[in-house]
Amino acid sequence: MTLINIVEIVVSVLLIALAFLAINSKTLIKSVMFLSSLSMLAVIGFVIMRAPDVAVTEAVIGSGLVTSLFVFTLLAVRKAGKKI
Amino acid sequence: MIDILVFSLVGLGVLFAMIRLLIGPTPADRVVALDTFNIIVIGVIALLAYQFKNSLYLDIAIVYAILAFIETIVFARYLEGNHGDC
Hints:
In chain A, helix 1 runs antiparallel to helix 2. Chain A is elongated, with a radius of gyration of 16 Å. By secondary structure, chain A is mostly helical. Chain A has three helices and no strands. Chain B has three helices and no strands. The N and C termini of chain B lie far apart (43 Å). By secondary structure, chain B is mainly α.
């Protein structure tokens, strides 16, 4: 078992734990934070699997686009709830 | 030998950042822990580029560094209002 295999196993276990936490969090902003951490560990997973183009795409979509979209949606929902 | 030591220390850093992300009492603690985790991930990608002896992986680290900054700014924009329940 080489060093990269051990890193791969650690990243996989952390991915499962973060997915569980992202589903079972109490508040929505906490879920978004755990989902962002999940996508950043998925980037490491794709780098270990030697797929750099998939890793770049996952970094742009998962960490930039989805997190910004969810946070701004939460802001808009909170504002609309306060107005009513 | 030195690689095992480096990756073990990075794993320890990931562990502590994740503990703070889990039990952070205030939302600001969680956002700072998430930013720390982002920086550690950028370092891990650079270390893997060294380990694989391939400079193609450094581009991922550059793109990820820009996006991690944007992500932290977006979370700070969420915390800017007085939303204190998290």
